[in-house]
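Technical annex B. To support the medicinal chemistry partners, we prepared a structural model of the target in complex with pyridoxal-5'-phosphate, based solely on the information shown next.
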Amino acid sequence: MDLPPFARRSTREWQAADAAHFLHPFTDHQALATKGVRVITHGDGVYVWDSDGRRIFDAMSGLWCVNVGYGQGALIEAAAQQMRTLPYYNAFFQTTTPPATALAERLAAVTPAQFRHVFFSSSGSEANDTVIRLVRRYWDLMGQPERKVIVSRLNAYHGSTMAAASLGGMAAMHTQGGLPIPGIAHIDQPHFWAHRHGAAKGLSREEFGVVAARWLEEKIAEIGPDKVAAFIGEPVQGAGGVVVPPSTYWPEIQRICDRHGILLVSDEVVCGFGRTGRWWGCETFGTRPDLMTFAKGVTSGYVPLGGVMVGERVARVLIERGGEFEHGYTYSGHPVACAVALANLDVIEQQQLVQRVREDTGPYLAQQLANLLDHPMVGEVQSCGLMAAIQLCRDIPLRESFAPEIAIGMACRGHCFDNGLVMRAVGDRMIVAPPLIMTRAQVDEMCGLIRQALDRTYAQARTAGWVAQAAG
Ligand SMILES: *Cc1c(COP(=O)(O)O)cnc(C)c1O
């Protein structure tokens, strides 16, 4: 492979330079410097390679984004061609570029009927920041400026800027930097396993779904219905642990939002573009959001792009009564990013990826993962399209959680890495979100690697005495 001059270094040299200069996101820098960073050098399809030449199955699609896999020629060509033609021009001051307007039109065509307009950003965080401004602007224009509070959920992930991290419900993020900002409230998540000894005790998943949705109604009553502007949620919570809600949850949330006139915002940054087996998570779960944020899968991560789909309810008010909307980014509608997104949509459509996930690979993955339920350390598996969670627990039939200080998820993740698989740990929940181009054979390969990692983790747990010793 032809590497540019800067890339010709040994792993050790990379690790030294990295520890000296690169502050990584969501990373304990001291711990990483001691351990040494892993250097990923190239990718193809569902695989990436590290600087020692080892092939790794990327079951996380990078960070939930490389949906069409690595090395898609159409995206690469689209970027190169657009860079030659016009690498940048802005969308401020009454101008546009062909890729930006063409993508806006295309997004309107692939989203539910209420969406005809888009506001572009370069990331999911910026898209969710934009949501806060849009929602509050909408209620100002509607003559209800006291409607400011946005309700979100614990363990939600909506990004990492001040506003997006506030919308999110990650406790660890809130402990740093004085978050959340005012005007954000949180309710608990519809997490059947986590609530199995509490709110979900004795209930079916469906019964629990209604109970969890009613937490929104209780929160609205507490805040005052005339002060609540919007509810935001990921159809399936991604970074929170691939929490697939009971089928009853979202319809009940929709009913509550309708009843109180509250805007519904669907954060589709992970679920959008086919991940759940429909174009949008809201279609899988049966809601009609007023606003919808996207990023990640829109370009399959090849270049940064995000945005907000603005439904007609909000768009009409903003356009007809709003005057100038005092908000925007230098890279809103970046022509290279939009050209790549258009090529990405072509690949999704030509390869019928959404349909494949819904009818073929999604159900097949669910079936293969269900085989893991015989493993002594697997408490539940949950999947939706091509995103899945494997809940670790102490031996079946105990099904008790491990003590947090054991960090069993991190132990399992270590065994994955050592065995050529990227799987993420969220507490004791192992999660995957593989590229949507994956084949059945690759589902088998991934599930085989997962089982090996579970076996190795179990062996380690037995040796360490974290689980019951075998009875002879
Ligand atoms: C990743 C993510 C974001 C933030 O996107 P960035 O591009 O990292 O800013 C927002 N919402 C969800 C659901 C995400 O998974």
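Notes passed to the chemistry partners:
The longest helix spans residues 440-464.
The pocket of pyridoxal-5'-phosphate is lined by residues 64, 123-125, 128, 157-159, 234, 238-239, 267, 269-270, 295, 306 (CB under 6 Å).
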